[in-house]
Design a protein that fits this description.
It comes from Dactylosporangium vinaceum. The protein is mainly alpha-helical. It contains two helices and two strands; from the N terminus they run ααββ. Helices cover 36% and strands 4% of the residues. It is flat.
C-alpha cells in the first residue's frame, strides 16, 4: 500500500465517521417541539406503553383524581416584614431563586 492509501484508510475513514455522527447529532438538535415550561399549564397526554391503547383510556377514567384548589402560600405571612432565619431582625420578604423560562 502506498502512503496515500494508508492515510485514507487509517485517517480518512475515522474522520468521515466522526463527521457523519456529528452531522446527525446537530441535525437532530434543530427540531423544535412544544415543551413544558415552568408556570405554564401541563397539557400533554401521559404515555403508557400498553399492548392495547384502549386500556389506557379505561385506566385514566377509572383512576382520575379530583383535586381541590387551595390558596397559595406567601412568604412572610400577613405582615410586610418577617424575621430572618439567622439574625432574628425584621427584613422585607423577597423572591429568591426559582425556575426560569430560559434554558
Amino acid at each position: 500500500m502506498s502512503i496515500i492509501e494508508t492515510t485514507l484508510i487509517f485517517a480518512g475513514i475515522p474522520v468521515a465517521i466522526i463527521l457523519l455522527i456529528s452531522g446527525a447529532v446537530y441535525a437532530g438538535g434543530a427540531r423544535r417541539s412544544r415543551r413544558y415550561r415552568p408556570g405554564r399549564p401541563f397539557e400533554f397526554t401521559p404515555v403508557w406503553f400498553l399492548a392495547a391503547p384502549e386500556q389506557q383510556a379505561a385506566l385514566a377514567r377509572a383512576r382520575e383524581l379530583t383535586g381541590v384548589r387551595r390558596a397559595e402560600l406567601t412568604a412572610g405571612g400577613d405582615d410586610a416584614t418577617t424575621a430572618t432565619e439567622w439574625s432574628g431582625e425584621k427584613s422585607q420578604p423577597q423572591v429568591i431563586g426559582g425556575a426560569s423560562d430560559r434554558w
